[in-house]
Structure formats: C-alpha cells, structure tokens
Write a structure and sequence with these properties.
17 strands; alpha+beta; six-stranded antiparallel β-sheet; 357 residues; nine-stranded mixed β-sheet
Length: 357
C-alpha cells in the first residue's frame, strides 16, 4: 500500500551515492504481537512471517535470510560525565562463491511503535541478500525491507536500554517448556527494545519464552546494558547429557561480565569445546578487551572507547590473530544520552551520529 511504499522510498544514503550506509524511519505497523504468537524459530519462519503479515503480496521469486555475528562488545563508564557507554564491533566477512569479500550495506532503522518505546537499531543488509548499492541498482527486490525491525544486530531505545547479539559455536539453543511460546533471536531483541527499560526487565521478559535458534550449527548470546549502569551477558547453556542448550543463564554483577566475544563466558561451560578455556574464537579480542578495560579501571570516555574498538577490529592482514570476520561497523553507545556514534569498515576517522527520535 502507499504508506509502505512511501516508507521504503524514504530510505536515505548517508554518503550521497556510495551505497554503504542507509537510514530509514520504519513508520508502519510491524505487528510485534503477531510475531510473538507466530512460532518464529529461525530464519525460514521469519521470512514466512514477513511475507504473510508485512507484505501486501508475496514476491514471485524465492527470498532467503541468513544470520551471523562474530563480534566484540563491552561496557564502561565515562569518568568525566558519569554516563554509561557500550562499545560494539559487528564483525562478519561475507564472501561470494569465488571467495571474494562482498561489500554490505549497513541499514540504520528508526522505529516508534504505538504503545512501545522508540529505538534505533542496525542491520546488515547482506543477510537479506542486499549488496552495497542495492537501493539504486534497478534490480534488487526491495520487498524484504519490510522485515527490517526483525533483522537487527544491536540497538538502543528511548530509556537507554541497549542490546547486541554475538555468535557462539556449537549447537543452537532449543528450549521446549510447554507453557511458553517460542521466540527467535532477533524477534526477542525487537521485543526487548520495544518493551524493556532495564537489564532486569529484559532478562525477566526472556524467561517467559522458549528461545529457539536456527537449524545450523551456531548459537548466540546477548550482551545488554542500560542507563543505570547495569549490564549482563545472557547465555543458553547445556544440561548434562543434552545436545542442545536449554538453560538460560544471566551473568552480571562482576567486572568480568563487562566484555564478551564469541565463546561461552559461563563458568558452567568451561569444559565445553566452545567455552572460555578451550575455544579460541575471539580469544585475542577478548584478552585485549580484558587488559585494556582493567588498566583504566573500567572507565573510558567515548574517544577512548572507540579507540578500544579499533584495537579489536578485524580485517585484512589480521590472519595471524586468527580473525574470524571483518569489522563492518563500530559503535559507541551513550546510554544516558541515547545516542550512537558509528564508524563503518574500520574508517575510524569518519563517524555517523544517531539519536533515538
């Protein structure tokens, strides 16, 4: 309908015509309540929900969606203002069939749902098969832009609650409590940005649902923080003898939970191949965060926080560090001001600023 068309055609290239970073106000109803009732348990069912509930007619060709995130994140306090900050690198190396890196479009999404909280979140357009410059190439089907509220990798809302997702190796989470509805990773993040003001509220909301992740061999954990200075890592871990993670753990209240990368942080997973003792996925990044944050007693101003993100950024030439991705964007969230300063593609001398509006 015309409202959806007007929204999609309002997308703005923030660099004019480079096709690397776009911004959009998502102004129509993305039907969160229906999504929470839709038994979305992975990318396939998320695509189906988008087609059935957010599009007026289903595209004639097949549409796919993928999801991944090899990242770094941390929380600290700005000593000059006492504002609470969250630093975040989103790392993922998209490659074509010839092994060449594919340039992605980052998409900044503003939402203001009726009865919910305003937020700004960040999407990797390649996860819905959009390459850099897709918006004006005259070929790309723009239909999947309707799914943007459910494709986020990190974001912040009007109360200063922020959340990000990071990849774990191993089998995906599959909770199966009979008295709970199922929820997928990104749908959960959308729910929390729309409804939670604090880390405590967010973790209690997650406990009301069965977390269900993709069929492939990968799981995820969340890092969240809020304007009160609270922070937590949320992981889904294994019961003894089970193949899939089912136990939700909230790690908080200690400086060791201020930073995380791509292995399980939970003490219950130390003997796992994907836990902190054995796994090397993100180890050098984790150690760099640990040393630098402890050195400054977990206090950094925004410039220093972006500098730490630069230290753990990944890209060409980092093979000796066993890099597992490419840094698509780096962000410093100010949870008290509800702002985000962002650099893309390790271009740290150029920044974009966003506010929850």
């Amino acid at each position: 309908d015309q409202d959806k068309l007007d929204m999609i055609y309002s997308l703005v290239d923030l660099e004019g015509d480079k096709g690397r970073i776009y911004e959009m106000n998502y102004t129509v109803d993305y039907k969160l309540e229906e999504a929470l009732d839709a038994n979305i348990v992975g990318t396939t069912s998320l695509v189906q929900f988008t087609m059935q509930h957010l599009m007026d007619r289903i595209p004639g060709k097949n549409t796919s969606l993928s999801f991944n995130a090899s990242c770094s994140v941390f929380a600290c306090t700005d000593p000059a203002t006492n504002n609470f900050l969250m630093g975040r690198n989103f790392d993922f190396n998209h490659k074509d069939k010839n092994g060449e890196r594919v340039m992605i479009p980052a998409i900044v999404v503003h939402t203001a749902p009726v009865g919910g909280k305003k937020s700004v979140s960040f999407v990797d357009g390649q996860f819905i098969n959009y390459k850099s410059g897709f918006y004006t190439d005259g070929e790309s089907d723009l239909s999947m832009l309707m799914a943007l509220p459910y494709l986020l990798l990190d974001g912040i809302n009007e109360d200063g609650f922020a959340i990000s997702v990071l990849k774990l190796d191993g089998y995906p989470t599959r909770q199966h409590y009979s008295d709970r509805k199922n929820i997928f990773t990104t749908v959960a993040m959308r729910m929390l940005l729309d409804r939670a003001s604090t880390v405590s509220e967010a973790t209690e909301m997650l406990r009301q649902y069965n977390m269900c992740m993709d069929e492939e061999k990968a799981s995820y954990h969340f890092f969240m923080a809020d304007a009160t200075g609270d922070y937590a890592i949320v992981e889904y871990t294994f019961k003894e003898g089970e193949q899939y993670p089912t136990e939700m753990e909230v790690l908080r209240g200690d400086d060791v939970w201020r930073y995380v990368t791509n292995f399980y942080a939970s003490p219950s997973m130390v003997d796992s191949p994907d836990g902190s003792v054995i796994s090397t996925h993100g180890k050098w990044r984790y150690d760099t965060l640990k040393v630098n944050l402890a050195k400054c007693q977990y206090e950094m101003n925004p410039v220093q926080a972006m500098g730490l993100l630069q230290k753990v950024a990944q890209g060409p030439g980092d093979e000796e560090k066993k890099s597992t991705g490419f840094t698509q964007w780096s962000e410093v969230y100010n949870l008290n001001k509800k702002t985000v300063r962002m650099s893309i593609l390790r271009e740290f001398d150029k920044t974009f600023d966003f506010t929850v509006e």
